[in-house]
Task: structure prediction
Amino acid sequence: MKIKAIMIAAVLTGLIACSTQTEESIEVKNNKKIDANWQSLSKHYDVPEWLVDGKLGVWFHWGIPSATDENRPNDGSWYGFRMYTPIVGKKTKDGEPHPWEFFAQWHIDNYGHPSQWGYEDMIPLFKAEKWDPDALVKMVKHNGARFIMPVATHHDNFDMYDSIHPWNSVNKGPKRDTLKEWKQAAQEHGLKFGVSTHLYWSPRFFQHARKYQKLGTAEWSLFNMDYDPKNYAKQDSWNEHWYARSWDLISKYDPDMFNIDSPYPTIEQGRGLGIKLFTDYINKDLAENNGKQSVVLSFKDKEADRTAFTYNLERGASGVIQPEPWMWATDLSGGWFYRATAVNKMKVPVMVGNAVDAVSKNGVVMLNIALRGDGTVPEKQQEYLDAIGEVFRTNEKGLYGSRPWITPGEGPLKIKTGRQGENKFPYSQQDVRFTTKNGNLYAFVLSKPTQDIVITTLATSGVLTQNIESVSMLGSDEKIKWQRNEQGLIIKLPRTLPGEHVAGFEVILDAPTEASPIIANR
Result:
């Protein structure tokens, strides 16, 4: 095992050296090579049109936890962490067992003590026996998706692809290169292909599993035993390991989107290997595409300059139009990884409304599907996908390729800006959102209307200076009756509505309208 560890370390070191040599040999046309610092990345990062036009993507959380007992207690999608929680009798304020300790005891009762049945013993349960990536990609495309983003590595240090790390889905579990198959399916159906890595958390993730590991075993590398679970972020060995595995992922699968769902090596503690990876990724793309950026770099660092990447506002929202494109990432399952008893507290109509709200504010939508261990979509999540698909198909003219108007909308429901605060309250027919495309204006009523629609923002004395020539309903041939006065644009309730959740209208003006000036430079 020592010889194998030395060989892996040599491979990792070689990858970093190879990347450095590749970086030095890159000649980007138009002199747009990016230096490995935030200022240079900010200056040159340019979000590709396919992301801003495509609006809707699907994230796939799928792996070892997906194949464990579907009726397990809430594990917070951190099965590998919580199963090793020390049981010391910790209680909640209500006197109940602490949920982490409760889960650890559940694991013992159902699988065995971690010393006898560790996380590595869960891997054979993950077989992907019904997984059909082509059918899944075809389905999500039908439901509006224009890009997919499967998880490549979660916190559990198990790679879902043919990696330089021995614990991967080709060697173990399903014995398939899932990323290769996802990408093939995406390309077959004309979707962009992204990957998401959560690797940087993993030394800390298995901190309580360390006492059960033995030097010289294969499990040593799965549980990151060569790295300090508390101070790994300061260890050169870990940061080099993270960089090498991340670059291996980029080099082999050439993703259109690279999402970091965890911290990364900082300039202060990690020798700047985080910003080096990011700029190497963009430079590789520039070199291959005549100096024009075609890829997306996304992560969740709220302190970083948001002109240097695409901000992943996970489970959040924006109350205003953001100057830079951003991503609203949310989960359809109620727990990121599949668990039959998980409950999505966001109802279907609210999720649909939130999606249109994000689009009106320069956002793109990323919906997570938590596949079962066998690779199939649970029925409850399919309901959400079908609903979003109906809305995006019916209203595609005003959603895909659109840009925010001068104001995002109107209505009583106030949306707050921030992560982990996504809206769960229902919309009413007074809640309206706007987009613009090709000089036309689009208005979306975020709840199925039951009476005449009044859009006060479009009053004759409001911000719309052009005259309205016509109003039509998206997805319908019905002739719409309307009038505009000092109260607003008043649309008589149509006889038939083409959708269950959102009513979209195209407003043709006598002169073109423009997108919000704060995004005009994009």
